[in-house]
Amino acid sequence: MTPLIIDTDPGIDDAFAIALAAGSPEVDLLAVTTVFGNVALSHTTRNALRLLELCGRSDVPVAAGAERPLVHPVPHRASEVHGGDGLSGAADTLPPATHEVGGRHAVTLMADLLRQAVEPVTIAPIGPMTNVALLLALHPELKPKIGRIVAMGGGVRGGNTTAAAEFNVWSDPEAAHRVLSEEDVPTVLVPLDLTHRCAVDAAWLARLAAGGRIAQGLHALTPSYVATYRRMLGEDGMVLHDAVALAEAISPGILRTTACAVEVDCSHGPGRGATIVDLRHHLPTTRRRVDVALDADTTAIGEFVLSRILG
């Protein structure tokens, strides 16, 4: 099994990502760490605890991390998409948590788990990359313990929060720059361009609603998210951004990647938070590259996610 740490800001697509990992025997879910993002840190942390309870994984430790970006305050959250509590206003439909966050900060917990690890650990940041940037900055000696970073974020051809920037990267461009452009840890970036192509439809949602306790619990969280994507897609359905990244973390190679140099715009102009993905193949080999997921069997991704949630 691959040891896995999920760093997250639940968030409805994050909820599906957590459930996917919890239902996948290929990974050993070591911890869930939380970060500000879709909603404030207090909400993302509570949501993570209750989602693990829904999935029967109250054994997984949870630690709260950064409540703001590294440098500049974030202008707004994504409550218009995810609801004021991050889960369509339905967080209280989840079972109450039977465990609490420990006394360690998210970065401390990740560092402790890496020190103890006997196999390379996959870290999956599926919210703003603040906690992971802090981990790499504070504990560079632990980088050899990280097998891969599999991050959801960015867009090759534009964004969803601004014309240029995707939400996770826009929320903390300086952190994303550290993770994607400055470090040498093997990294996979799963951008909007692919996650939108992996959107699930009304039939998928109906199968989810007809499933067991976990599937029905997740389905209850989707109304505001589906309403948002109905306006975007023109039909009932939704985009499982973070679950697509977790599919790659769980099953390496399920997404088809291309090694690219990636820069993050940290300016304060209209391009702030943009990920500039250089698709040219003749670049000097000295430039740092990350594996950008540009293609996949999109139908198979939806089936993979649903099969693990339905059990």
TrEMBL record:
The keyword Ligase does not apply. GO terms for molecular function: hydrolase activity. CDD domains: nuc_hydro_IU_UC_XIUA (cd02651). InterPro entries: Inosine/uridine_hydrolase_dom, IUNH, Ribo_hydro-like. SUPFAM superfamilies: Nucleoside hydrolase (SSF53590). It comes from the Bacteria. Residues 4-300 form the Inosine/uridine-preferring nucleoside hydrolase domain. The keyword Hydrolase applies. Keywords: Glycosidase, Hydrolase. Pfam families: IU_nuc_hydro. This is Nucleoside hydrolase. It comes from Kutzneria chonburiensis.
